[in-house]
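Trying the structure run again after the queue cleared.
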Amino acid sequence: MSSYTRPCRHCGRRINLRQMLHGQWVAFEGDQQHVCDEPAPPKAPPPARPRTPPPAATPAPFEPLYPEVPQDPPPSPQSALDSERHLALAQLEALAVA
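Done. Tokens:
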């Protein structure tokens, strides 16, 4: 048995044509035999799409969620002298080892 779907030639409704065991083709709507005299079943209206809200005119100002991270203080002149002394001592030790 085979079947196919097409619009009815008389009323325009979608029907399913099925070939019966004895070779005849019979029109069906769902599981009921198609009758053109009956009015077409009412179609459901298309679903309404929800309205999208209009975009905001101006965006809200940015506010961080955490406090501002303090910057490292500039190195003091004393710490620069200490680092130079450390470097000089390291060079002297390297020469003594070699």
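The first strand starts at residue 3 and ends at 7. Worth checking whether this holds up in the mutant runs.
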